[in-house]
């Protein structure tokens, strides 16, 4: 069974069952991973700042954004089409035509999420309650969908 033929939420509801809840828990796992990576890279930037007489410390204010963007771009846009948190919850991201996302799309996906949460408040997450595929606003804009990867493997 190919994912291209089963992307319709009306013919294959199992692809989207439990996606919203799993996605929230996967996000929490990813936030923890990003915090750990940011702490490690902050230590590296601190040491770099000592050797560069303080110039390296100019990276500290934007460090977490860079770490989070790289984390999302290379994991969500990678061969598994999922961040480690999404993989732990059994989720994958696909474009609506069934193809896998690429790193640039994953980075844009993360940026749209951050901007929508910043400017439209967390109420933007209510969009998933009314979406047939349990998609969020930035998923709809980019034409992506999150599915149960366990259903696809069966």
From TrEMBL:
It comes from the Bacteria. It is a multi-pass membrane protein. The chain crosses the membrane at residues 24-51, 58-82, 102-130. Pfam families: RDD (PF06271). Its main location: membrane. It is found in: Membrane. This is RDD domain-containing protein. One of its GO terms (cellular component) is membrane. The lineage of its organism: Bacteria, Pseudomonadati, Pseudomonadota, Alphaproteobacteria, Hyphomicrobiales. Keywords: Membrane, Transmembrane, Transmembrane helix. The keyword Transmembrane helix applies.
